[in-house]
Write a structure and sequence with these properties.
The complex is a heterodimer of chains A (471) and B (302). Chain A has 471 residues and is an alpha/beta fold. Chain A has 18 helices and 10 strands. Chain A is 42% helix and 12% strand. In chain A, the strands form 2 sheets. In chain A, strands 1, 2, 3, 6, 7, 8, 9 and 10 form an 8-stranded mixed beta sheet that branches. Chain A has a two-stranded antiparallel sheet with strand order 4-5. Chain B starts with a helix and ends in a 9-residue tail after the last helix. In chain B, 42% of the residues are buried. Classes of the chains: A alpha/beta (471), B mainly alpha (302).
Chain lengths: 471, 302
């Protein structure tokens, strides 16, 4: 073979290798120096009727994540916006790939006015916030509610709705849905077998023994996304040790993952692994596969958020009657009562700081947070919103009814943690991997907490990641 | 004719070169540039940080873990794929017992060839989804078959001891068919009289394969080697869809690390570009080494 042939082949090999690495270059750095014509160019004077100073004829662009909720609800909200500002021309688009669609526009300095940043192709919020790409939504909170007389928008929201979108005290992300995280079972299965849901850990283990004896696996979980199991573990720890367990984790405090609460919780949850109360093969299932196994009655319990019911709609048998319950109490020494449940706002909406019509974007959020907007959403997609009391008069499916009931019982004892919003990598990669090892029985509780702590320490030591604190 | 040559060349060469430069070369060069910044991807601001990203990379255990997996792929994938490809191609083209000089395939060659080639027709995404169901720990084909034999199969993709090898097996499965056809075509091009001559000299099939067929196929094998080596440094789509690098990073590959760093768990485009640049040099080195190592004198048939 001649030398020239070799060079030719090497060049060919280089071309073959090109696509992968050029992938990143493709979304190359933009022009730069665009300090933005966005913001206040499109503002009118603030009046009592128009508290956000919306220029009524300014066009508004809305980009919706096209996922489980679809896009119809957003079209309805846009019609409501047009009721108030009929001259505004609204551009609506929906995509399953938010990041790929919008990344070049953020770099270019021409983002849309409202973005529903959600789904697997979601843009990492730490990145957006640390680059000042988001407008402060505090104004919306202080504005009067659109259709609840005498109350500001803030007054109409459920507890924890503001906290989860706040970074160092600035409210930057409005999470519109209200999600409750707990342990799910089928009330039909339980009634048929004469089982009653347990309120303490000892009772729960006893119940698991009973379930296993009946030939059903007590638990299953999404082995491909084992972080789903970190939720009941941390919830148990917070109930045992109080909400400071969560703030320590969120603030990346040293040894936050090895607090007494976390230790007690990890020891307790190790029991279901040790005693073989998990459906065989669960570590190899993804979330849909494990939820389907649960719906088929192969397992009695599963940990999930309140989106479970709509996600499983197609495969849930008639009369299955799913219901959510809080994590069991460890004992009498628990700081929070059994009824306390993790509730948090989800489905993030944001107003980019460099959008052309920031005031319009804020007003759009106010429309969404009106009683009418929220009720319409709940009716269309069967999910709760952060607007308190918006489920009244709306008929809910069984799972969601149980969610509302659990939320009422939990009352002021509800709790939440926000580290996944601050540091996506910590939950998605590191805690996830640790949970996978723990719940498949390859490591014990002490090693599990070590692994989580190691992940948190890695994030804390990484100077390229912006850190946030909450009280 | 002669005086009209240059305008013609310019007209036909400049536009494609320009397009190639803008859409292929320039993103590439920009990737190099971005890899020296701390760009986070959602604003136009980026500071020059020199080689800091590469220094971080050297200390990044997750990247090393991914590179280790790619190294295993690099060793196993070409070897097994080419081995199987050669074996099947030989069977299909000269494994039969009848006819002159033993150079016909086994019965049903055409059907086998079709079956082997079948995975090539499927999109990689479909392959990943099909195999994810095959590996399903409870309802999957694999564990159901094992169960029929009384063996309790593991939860394949959920077990760090198996996940990586399961993906590797699919990677081989989806590649072999193409090389069977490629090698088969090359074998067809070998003049039949060579085989007749060695048969007359009394060579066994085994000797024929190793002393005649493979040396005559060497150019094709070499190309296959390079292609597979490049595929081994990628492996991204299958890994992402089947295991997403898990459990506990056991099936991670460097392409996935790059994707995850840019679009997945964090948005560090500068750092991800640095990983991309490393991938580029790894691929290039592997290609050059494979060519050097496989260099031989070309055999001309005429």
């Amino acid at each position: 073979m001649k030398r020239r042939d070799i060079l030719g082949r090497v060049a060919a090999a280089g071309v073959l290798a090109t696509p992968a690495a050029a992938l990143l270059g493709g979304c190359a750095l933009g022009g730069g120096g665009d300090d933005g014509d966005g913001g206040d160019a499109n503002r009118a004077e603030k009046t009592a009727d128009n508290p956000l100073g919306v220029k009524t004829d300014a066009p508004l662009e809305v980009v919706i994540f096209n996922g489980g909720f679809g896009e119809e609800y957003a079209k309805a909200h846009q019609a409501m916006y047009n009721e108030k500002h009929p001259q505004a021309k609204i551009t609506h688009s929906a995509t399953p790939e938010i990041s790929k669609t919008l990344q070049p526009r953020f770099v270019d300095g021409t983002p849309p006015d409202v973005v529903n940043n959600s789904g697997a192709g979601q843009i990492d919020f730490n990145g957006l916030v640390s680059q000042d790409a988001l407008a402060d939504l505090g104004e919306v909170l202080d504005a009067p509610s659109l259709d609840v007389p005498g109350k500001t928008v803030r007054d109409t929201l459920l507890p924890g709705a503001v906290e989860v979108g706040s970074y160092d005290g600035r409210f930057l992300v409005m999470n519109y849905t209200y999600t409750v995280y707990g342990i799910w079972h089928s009330t039909k299965l339980f009634a048929d077998r004469g089982w009653t849901d347990a309120k303490t850990w000892d009772d729960h283990i006893a119940l698991c023994r009973q379930i296993k004896a009946a030939g059903i696996a007590p638990w299953t979980y999404a082995g491909k996304h084992p972080r789903y199991m970190s939720w009941p573990v941390i919830s148990t720890a917070i109930k045992f040790g109080g909400p400071t367990v969560a703030t320590a984790i969120d603030n990346l405090e040293p040894n936050a993952w090895k607090s007494d609460g976390m230790k007690a919780a990890a020891d307790a949850w190790h029991q279901i692994v040790k005693d073989g109360y998990i459906l065989d093969g669960s570590p190899g299932l993804d979330h849909v596969q494990s939820q389907t196994a649960w719906c088929q009655g192969q397992a009695a319990f599963i940990s999930c958020g309140s989106w479970l019911e709509s996600e499983q709609k197609k495969v849930t048998p008639e009369g299955f009657n799913m219901a959510v319950a809080p994590t069991p109490s460890l004992g009498a020494g628990d700081k929070l009562p059994y009824e306390a449940i993790r509730g948090t706002a989800g489905e993030p909406f944001m107003v980019p700081a460099k959008g052309k019509n920031v005031a319009g974007g804020l007003e759009y959020l106010r429309v969404m947070l009106s009683m009418k907007g929220a009720q319409d959403f709940t009716r269309k997609v069967s999910s709760l919103t952060v607007v308190a009391g918006s489920t009244e008069g709306v008929e809910l499916p069984p799972g969601l009814t149980s969610v509302v009931k659990a939320l009422d019982a939990s009352g002021g004892n509800g709790f939440n943690w926000v580290y996944p919003a601050y540091y996506r990598k910590l939950e998605r990669n590191l805690v996830d991997a640790a949970c996978g090892e723990f719940f498949s029985g390859r490591i014990g509780p002490a090693e599990f907490l070590d692994l989580c702590q190691k992940g948190a320490d890695e994030i804390a030591a990484d100077s390229s990641i912006t850190k946030y604190k909450r009280a | 004719m002669r005086h009209g040559k240059y305008p013609l060349i310019v007209t036909f060469l400049v536009p494609p070169l320009l397009l190639y430069g803008i859409f292929v070369l320039s993103p590439y060069l920009q990737a190099f540039q971005i890899s020296t910044t701390n760009w986070l991807g959602y604003s136009a601001e980026a500071d020059f940080v020199g080689l800091e990203n590469f220094a971080t990379l050297l200390r990044d255990g997750y990247v090393w873990n991914a590179i280790k997996n790619n190294a295993i792929l690099l060793l196993v994938l070409p070897l097994v794929t080419i081995g199987l490809g050669l074996f099947f191609a030989t069977m299909l083209n000269m494994g039969g017992r009848r006819g002159r000089a033993g150079v016909v395939g086994v019965t049903g060659t055409a059907a086998y060839r079709l079956i082997y080639f079948f995975p090539q027709v499927l999109s990689v995404v479909i392959i990943a989804i099909i195999w994810r169901e095959v590996y399903h720990p409870n309802n999957g084909l694999l564990n159901a078959s094992l169960g029929a034999l009384g063996i309790n199969g593991p939860s394949w993709l959920g077990d760090p001891r198996f996940a990586f090898w399961c993906v590797l097996a699919v990677l081989i499965w989806s590649n072999v068919g193409f090389y069977v056809v490629l090698f088969g075509a090359a074998m067809q091009a070998i003049p039949r009289d060579i085989y007749e001559a060695v048969m007359l000299d009394g060579a066994s099939r085994f000797v024929t394969l190793f002393k005649v067929t493979i040396p005559l196929l060497w150019d094709t094998v070499q190309v296959a080697w390079i292609y597979l080596a490049i595929a081994a440094l990628d492996g991204f789509i299958l890994v992402q869809l089947m295991t997403n690098g898990g459990p506990n990073f056991s099936s991670d590959v460097i392409g996935l690390r790059m994707y995850d760093t840019a679009f997945g768990s964090e948005t560090k485009f500068g750092y991800a570009s640095a990983i991309g640049v490393v991938m580029f040099f790894l691929t290039l080195s592997v290609a050059v080494l494979a060519l050097r190592a496989a260099r031989r004198d070309r055999i001309e048939y005429s």
